[in-house]
Design a protein that fits this description.
By secondary structure, the protein is an alpha/beta fold. It has 2 domains: 17-83 and 370-428, Roll (Urease, subunit C, domain 1); 85-365, Alpha-Beta Barrel (TIM Barrel), CATH 3.20.20. Helices cover 41% and strands 21% of the residues. The protein has 18 helices and 17 strands. Helix 4 packs across helix 18 (427-445), helix 14 (327-341) crosses helix 15 (350-357) and helix 14 crosses helix 17 (396-403). The longest helix has 19 residues, at 427-445. The protein starts with a helix and ends with a helix. The structure holds zinc ion.
Length: 446
């Protein structure tokens, strides 16, 4: 190598800033959201300022003075809401949206979804996850909990978009090699600022006792969450009773897995004893009403669970069984369905439902979130001036649950703006690539 070339290499190494230099610089610059409206104990407060430094909200108050060099966001006419958490999804499945609808769960999985999934490449996962991230950002979801194939690819793609996520690879006996990949994945991502690794045994019907116990052992050793599907269909419960003599919840309890480390999606078919065990173990239940309704799996006994003091949060499930990732829609449908299930409009107030998508989810995932000083800066802004369905300002929590059709204008995660006034940098390229990949996948399956 010539002397000049060596010099160029050395100069680049030491003079040119590394890629993350600008990110680091942005991290140091405070951000001030001026004159925004927000909710405090259900009351709408106007004219508030939110000061963000690094990845935290430092202060919320009136007339916080803006300093030179601060990034300023005009919040006038906008409502700030804390980040929502989609607590159960399979984000890469956004690539399969609309591919197979209106089928029974098992034929849907066996004849349509699993054969197509067998053809998914790492690149398909990458673009499916990016497509899902776009949708989450647009719906004000700042964090999601995922279980799917190629978790490293999903984690990297998510990190590139700037969202926060709890990610696990899916474990089941059909693909025994997945189990061996869990611990290295957890070790690689433990301690990351945005990606929290979890352990994802698919379900009691897809995992043997040995697999479940191995998953538990890894999760215990690394102090991470176990993410699973539980008591989703009547057939699952009947099968479990037949093979183990126990309900799926009782079975997990005997394995020592029904505890606060467990995030159990669905929990539709529960006995009173199951509800008691979930409460006793402090299991976090993730309700997925729209997916359960679309697949005709049933309606979860949320009122009974909540009366038993179980911490319940909300998820959309994958976009191929929902078919979107819209938590506002999930909130409204959940409220309305539960009112009908218990034959009273008094069941589940808007405030209770709002709590499921925010505070309960923050507790389940151990995150310090919300609009208060010290919290992680994960929030969204909704432009009220362009949303007549949020007028008049009477009960804004009710509006968010019953009248919001989804879609926020600005999304901030970990102190970084991911979407500003409806613009997400790089969105068009992601949409184009996702469309190409969907076409290729379907042509392979035909
Ligand atoms: Zn699922």
């Amino acid at each position: 190598m010539s002397k000049q070339l060596w010099f160029s290499v050395i100069a680049y190494r030491f003079i040119a800033p590394p890629d993350n230099f600008y990110t680091f610089l942005a991290f140091l610059i405070p951000m001030l959201i001026k004159d925004v409206s927000l909710l405090e104990s259900g009351q709408l407060l106007n004219g508030r300022d939110i000061l963000i430094q690094g990845n935290r909200i430092i202060k919320i108050g009136r007339d916080l003075s803006d300093e030179p060099g601060e990034e300023l966001i005009d919040g006038h006419g906008q409502l700030a809401i804390p980040g929502l958490i989609n607590a159960h999804t399979h984000l890469a499945m956004t690539l399969l949206r609309g591919y197979a609808d209106d089928m029974e769960l098992m034929p849907w999985l066996q004849e349509k979804i699993w054969p197509l999934e067998a053809r998914l490449t790492e690149e398909d996962i990458r673009w499916g996850v990016k497509l899902g991230c776009l949708e989450l950002i647009r719906f004000g979801v700042t964090c999601y909990s995922d279980m799917y194939y190629y978790p490293d690819v999903a984690a990297n793609a998510t990190k590139e978009t700037g969202l926060r996520a709890f990610i696990s690879g899916v474990i089941f006996d059909m693909k025994p090699e997945m189990l061996g990949q869990v611990e290295p994945f957890v070790s690689r991502w433990k301690g990351d600022d945005l990606i929290m690794p979890t352990v994802g045994p698919h379900s009691v019907y897809a995992c043997s006792k040995e697999t479940l116990l191995k998953a538990k052992e890894i999760a215990d050793r690394h102090d991470v969450i176990i993410h699973t599907h539980l008591s989703e269909t009547r057939e699952e419960v009947e099968g479990s009773n037949l093979t183990t003599g126990k309900s799926p919840v009782e079975y997990l309890d005997t394995l020592g897995m029904a505890n606060e480390r467990l995030a159990a999606a669905h929990c539709v078919w529960l006995s009173e004893r199951d509800c008691y065990l979930l409460a006793k173990g402090k299991v976090n239940v993730v309700n997925c009403t729209v997916s359960n309704l679309k697949l005709a799996s049933g309606i979860a006994p949320l009122n009974t669970l909540m009366k038993a003091n179980v911490n319940v949060c909300l998820g959309t499930d994958g976009a191929s069984s929902n078919n979107n990732l819209n938590l506002f829609e999930e909130m409204k449908v959940t409220a309305i369905v539960q009112k009908n299930a218990y034959h009273t409009p008094a069941a589940f107030s808007a405030e209770q439902i709002w709590h499921l998508a925010t505070e309960n989810a923050y507790r389940a995932f151990g995150l310090n979130l919300g609009l208060h000083a010290g919290a992680l800066a994960d929030l969204s802004l909704i432009n009220l001036k362009t949303r007549p369905w949020l007028y008049p300002f009477s009960n804004m929590v009710s509006h968010l649950v019953y009248s919001m059709t989804g879609g926020v204008d600005t999304t901030i995660v970990n102190g970084k703006v991911l979407m500003r006034d409806g613009v997400i940098p790089g969105e068009a390229a992601i949409l184009e690539e996702a469309q190409k990949r969907f076409k290729r996948l379907v042509s392979l399956a035909e």
